[in-house]
Amino acid sequence: MIKISNKEIWFVTGSQHLYGQETLKQVAQNSETIAKALHNSEVIPLNIVFKPIVKTPLEITNLCIQANATKNCIGIIMWMHTFSPAKMWINGLRILHKPLCHFHTQFNAEIPWEHIDMDFMNLNQSAHGDREFGHMMSRMRINRKVIVGHWKAESVQQKIGLWSRVALGVDEMQQLKVARFGDNMREVAVTEGNKVSAQITFGMSVNGFNASDITSKIESLSQEEINNLLATYEQEYRLASELAKDGAKRESLIEAAKIELALRRFLEEGGFKAFTDTFENLGDLKQLPGLAVQRLMADGYGFGAEGDWKTAALTRVMKVMATGLEGGTSFMEDYTYHFNPVKDLVLGSHMLEICPTIADTIPSCEVHPLSIGGKEDPVRLVFNSPAGSGLNASLVDLGNRFRLIVNEVEAVEPLADLPKLPVARVLWNPKPNLEIATTAWILAGGAHHTVYTKALTSEFLEDFADSFGIELLVIDSDTKIRNFKNLIRANEAYYSGFLRG
Description:
The chain has about 500 residues and is α/β, with parallel strands linked by helices. About 40% of the residues lie in helices and about 20% in strands. The chain is built from 15 helices and 19 strands. It has helices at about 20-40, 55-70, 90-95, 120-125, 125-140, 155-175, 195-200, 210-220, 225-235, 250-270, 290-300, 310-320, 435-445, 460-470, 480-495, and strands spanning about 10-15, 45-50, 75-80, 100-105, 145-150, 175-180, 205-210, 240, 275, 300-305, 330-340, 345-350, 365, 380, 390-395, 400-410, 425-430, 450-455, 470-475. A six-stranded antiparallel barrel has the order 11-12-17-16-15-18. A five-stranded parallel β-sheet has the order 2-1-3-4-5, sandwiched between helices. α10 crosses α11 (about 290-300). The longest helix has 22 residues, at about 155-175.
């Protein structure tokens, strides 16, 4: 479902003809050595492709044109080995539409004190060559990631690996197709938004469909397909007794399997990687998709409940960025609080649709009444989520811009059993504490729906926001409400254009 093996990052080195052929030859050799080392790094998940060094405005512009036209190229690492006059880069940078990482490094780690001479100095000029390059990107207001350090250092390679994952997310967002089954849940504000503005800003498209598009697929399913999926359920989960063969509610599991097969087929045929539904627009579906949504999310699809297309898209993008990393990512909602003199906590959950990638053990497959929606009892996976660091992220439409809000959290083990709670859940302590975090979240206009992840950090989302030039607000251990209010006010001025010129 998430394929990254064909994605590549180009490694581009700038220089100029001033230094002569011998120096340029050495620049090329050194650059290729660095590119190969990054390509072979265990912490960088993508192919790093060395590109011939660029020395003239035409070479730079042609390379940027080629990068834009190459589908598998999802980002460029740029480094100035020598001094590369930045006016040469203007036309290329002006047309470049791929994420850019400015890598400020040099080939040698230490100064060769006894042997350093002017030949060495002419060859190794990134200390000021990259400043020239950085000046031009700042003047052109180009959003980019800046990484500083020696290319052999594992910490530096980890930063490049992180940025390359963000480039994956940017690439995914730019071509993402989101399907909405039914419209927005009636009268809910935050799940609405301007889908045209979203397509202009991010590239993703959001279009509506009817529940009949799913039920029509059910009619064409074979009994063999249904039986095979039922066998998968029995193998992968702990089935409640009433869902087992000859169980009193076996038909509910059969119906859940039909919904999953039909929904999956529709998404695959349409090339959709994220979707929404709402219990107010289920049509002839016999139950709200619960198990189907959970399993599709586990396979990498994005999801948003009640028509929340922004959270659906963000779920998918964050799952793509987290490919191969430990920890899971799920659609989430702040559901209820635990106010306590020792520590206030949040219970995160939803009616049904929490992704089992965040489960602490093999989920239990159960069926329970939903109490709303007027449909048959839906099947769902029930589990707890393990303790550890995580975050919640929310993408909201403020009318004149999109804002990405992040709250770092620390998940904790449930304080007691939850024998009567028939949904998946996670308990967390928001940083710096519930009072400050929730105050800041509400002031920022954060949604009640979020994406919860134990695989990504705030830095991923910071780089993601920078790539699209959207606003980011992070709520963490250092957050203070007075400062947070001032930041919101300053951002309002900036994004309204008063300070950007």
